[in-house]
Specification:
single chain, 17 strands
Length: 259
């Protein structure tokens, strides 16, 4: 699982692909980021490694990095986007116990004059099928006051900041409503989480993995402020139920399954 901790080790990557360029050799799996922000009135915006940033081979997976993604009308931005993904096809696939993994790290800034609702959906197509999949995941972050008037990040009413999904079905949630975190004072930050599940051992998901896994992050963020998140979701076959996420050191408790 050390590969999940190597998100910044891009210098060691064997292959690099920039957006829009041709690519020979192992092909990165389909993975995309959908972003919807309530105040931009633009609907869901979709980004992937073919049109933004660059992708670097990293062991059995890939690092997708982008310096900044700017939303419609400059009302929001995603900075320091860095996502590790592995679709389970390297290292022997299911027979070898390879994990299907998403690990996303980023900072989002609300540049508008109002509190906005952010929905980020990160989806990775799986290269393998896993029956009775086991899972693990985590989320941790910060909220930072950039406007000298306090900052708040919160779960949307009746929902959760983090959702782990298998084939579009929510199988676990973290930072559930009424979660809210405030940061007071100019340039002051407060911790969000951490919370996790499936550590030190993966837990049953109750689902088969056929096509994809997703991390959904949904939250409100006050005007002019920023929030950062590091979110992980991983699915493995039952025989490979190993403490793969232990290296993250997150001590959160298991949370309820989402509907």
């Amino acid at each position: 699982m050390a590969k999940l901790c190597k998100l910044t080790a891009l210098a060691a990557a064997a292959i690099t692909l920039t957006a829009g360029s041709a690519f020979a050799g192992p092909t990165p799996p389909p993975m995309w980021l959908n972003v919807d922000v309530s105040g931009d009135n633009a609907g869901m915006q979709q980004y992937d490694w073919t049109n933004v940033g660059q992708i670097n081979q990293n062991g059995d997976g890939w690092d997708w990095v982008a310096p900044t993604i700017v939303g419609p009308g400059d009302l929001w931005s995603i900075d320091e986007w860095n996502c590790y993904m592995a679709d389970g096809t390297s290292g022997g696939g299911v027979a070898g116990g390879t994990a299907v993994t998403l690990n996303a790290n980023f900072v989002v800034t609300n540049n508008s004059a109002n509190t906005e609702t952010f929905t980020l959906v990160m989806t990775l197509n799986s290269g393998v099928v896993i029956a009775d999949a086991l899972m693990a995941g985590s989320v941790v972050g910060t909220v930072t006051d950039l406007t000298f008037d306090d900052a708040t990040v919160a779960a949307v009413g009746g929902s959760s900041i983090y959702k782990g999904q298998i084939d579009g079905t929510t199988v676990q949630t973290l930072l559930d409503d009424p979660f809210s975190q405030n940061a007071g004072g100019a340039l002051q930050s407060s911790a969000v989480g951490p919370e996790d599940f499936g550590t030190p051992n993966h837990i049953a998901s109750g689902e088969d993995l056929d096509t994809s896994i997703s991390i959904v992050l949904e939250f409100t963020l006050t005007a002019g402020d920023s929030a950062s998140f590091s979110a992980v979701f991983e699915v493995i076959p039952a025989p490979a139920a190993l403490p793969l996420l232990a290296g993250f050191g997150l001590l959160g408790r298991r949370r309820r399954r989402g509907n």
